C-alpha cells in the first residue's frame, strides 16, 4: 500500500487541477439610481403704476348768434350783413372801394349814439345768454380689474435619457454553439 503522505500529495494535486480549471472572470456593468429632490423657487409679484394717454372725441352742443340767417362772428358773416345793408340803404362808398373798406366805414358809423332796441322801450341793450355744453374731466382712482394669484402642485413624469454600459459573457463551445450567460446572471442578481 501506499503511504499516507503519498495519498495526501495525490489529493493535493487533484485539488490543484480542479482549482486551475476554474477561472473567475469579472463582468462590469453600469447601474443607475434615481432620486427626487424638492427644490424651492421664489417668484416676485408686484404692482406698478403706468401712465397712459387717452384721447376722447365728444360731440358738444352750444348756441351761436345768427342775424338774418347768417352766423355772427364767422368769416363773411358780419361783413355780408353790413354789405347787404349797404345795398338796401343806398348808402355806400364809391364803386372802386373794396368791401373791406366799406365794412370798416359801416363799423365806424355804428359807433354813434345808442338807440332803443324796440319801439316804445327805453332799453338800449338786451343780454342774450348763450348756453353750451361744457366738458368736465374728472379723474379718480377706482378698481379696474383684479389679479388672482394661486399656487398648484403639479406632478410630471419626465423621461430621462440614460446610457448604461455592460459587458457580455458569451461561451463558445467546440461544436460551434454559443450561450449568453450575462443575462441570466444579471437577472438573478437583481
Give a verbal description of the structure:
There is one protein chain. By secondary structure, this protein is mostly helical. It has a domain at 66-107. Helices cover 26% and strands 5% of the residues. It has 4 helices and 4 strands. It has helices spanning 4-21, 77-89, 99-109, 182-189, and strands spanning 66-67, 70-71, 170-172, 178-180. The strands form 2 sheets. A two-stranded antiparallel ribbon has the order 1-2. Strands 3-4 form a two-stranded antiparallel sheet. Mean pLDDT is 76; it is low at 88-96 and 185-190.
Question: What are the salient characteristics of this protein?
Answer:
two-stranded antiparallel sheet, 190 residues, disordered C terminus, 5% strand, 4 strands, mainly alpha
Describe the protein's topology.
Blueprint: H1 4-21, E1 66-67, E2 70-71, H2 77-89, H3 99-109, E3 170-172, E4 178-180, H4 182-189
Helix pairs in contact: 2-3
Amino acid at each position: 500500500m501506499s503511504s499516507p503522505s503519498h495519498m495526501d500529495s495525490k489529493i493535493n494535486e487533484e485539488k490543484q487541477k480542479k482549482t486551475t480549471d476554474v477561472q473567475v472572470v469579472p463582468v462590469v456593468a453600469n447601474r443607475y439610481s434615481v432620486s427626487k429632490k424638492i427644490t424651492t423657487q421664489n417668484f416676485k409679484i408686484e404692482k406698478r403704476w403706468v401712465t397712459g394717454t387717452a384721447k376722447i372725441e365728444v360731440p358738444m352742443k352750444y348756441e351761436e348768434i345768427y342775424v338774418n340767417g347768417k352766423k355772427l362772428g364767422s368769416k363773411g358773416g358780419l361783413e355780408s350783413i353790413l354789405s347787404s345793408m349797404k345795398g338796401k340803404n343806398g348808402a355806400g362808398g364809391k364803386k372802386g372801394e373794396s368791401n373791406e373798406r366799406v365794412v370798416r366805414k359801416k363799423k365806424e358809423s355804428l359807433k354813434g349814439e345808442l338807440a332803443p332796441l324796440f319801439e316804445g322801450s327805453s332799453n338800449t341793450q338786451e343780454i342774450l345768454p348763450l348756453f353750451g355744453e361744457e366738458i368736465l374731466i374728472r379723474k379718480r382712482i377706482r378698481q379696474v380689474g383684479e389679479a388672482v394669484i394661486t399656487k398648484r402642485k403639479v406632478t410630471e413624469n419626465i423621461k430621462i435619457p440614460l446610457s448604461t454600459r455592460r459587458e457580455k459573457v458569451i461561451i463558445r463551445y467546440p461544436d460551434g454553439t454559443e450561450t449568453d450567460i450575462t443575462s441570466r446572471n444579471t437577472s438573478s442578481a437583481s
